[in-house]
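To: structure subgroup
Subject: Chain for Friday's discussion

All,

I'm putting the inputs and outputs inline so they're searchable in the archive.
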Amino acid sequence: MVELVFHEVDRSRWSDLERLFESRGGPKYCWCMVWRATPGEAKARDRASRKAALERRVRTGIPVGILGYLEGEPVAWCSIAPRTTYRRLGSEDIAVAPQDNVWSLVCFFVSRQYRRQRLMPCLLEAAVEQARRRGATIVEAYPVDADSPSYRFMGFVPAFRVAGFREVGRAGTRRHVMRLHVR
């Protein structure tokens, strides 16, 4: 199995995120802004605007996610950040205690040459650890069933079950809302 080293995306790692996202098969069309865009940002649907919006968040210290590195090269991405930094994900009506700090896990990307190498468990573990380190009490995810025709970038339900997540509801017709208590 491939051993990855993970780092939070910050100013010093922006160029690594750019390189990964702009690689062949990378998410350069959305720049992981689908769930983050403010109403004003959502009006600008071009790649450059989405990239600039994500970069603004990174430059101002807003958590956006982690990168997985293999031999110093970025090969994997996981969007993990406070739920408050995203627009509505469809889980806001599912109760949490007022003191809970919910972080949302909304996207995964692995470079083509490293897909199908069972990296999901280590991506999930690293994302949960990142959230825990930053004060999360709950990590919330929105995976789909394996036969889903859309939202596949959010992961598949079985991987989250194996990692200890429990289903607490649905967000729309395809996405399951799953939570893991980390404190």
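Points worth raising on Friday:
The chain has a mean pLDDT of 93.
The CA atoms of residues 78 and 108 lie 5 Å apart.

D.
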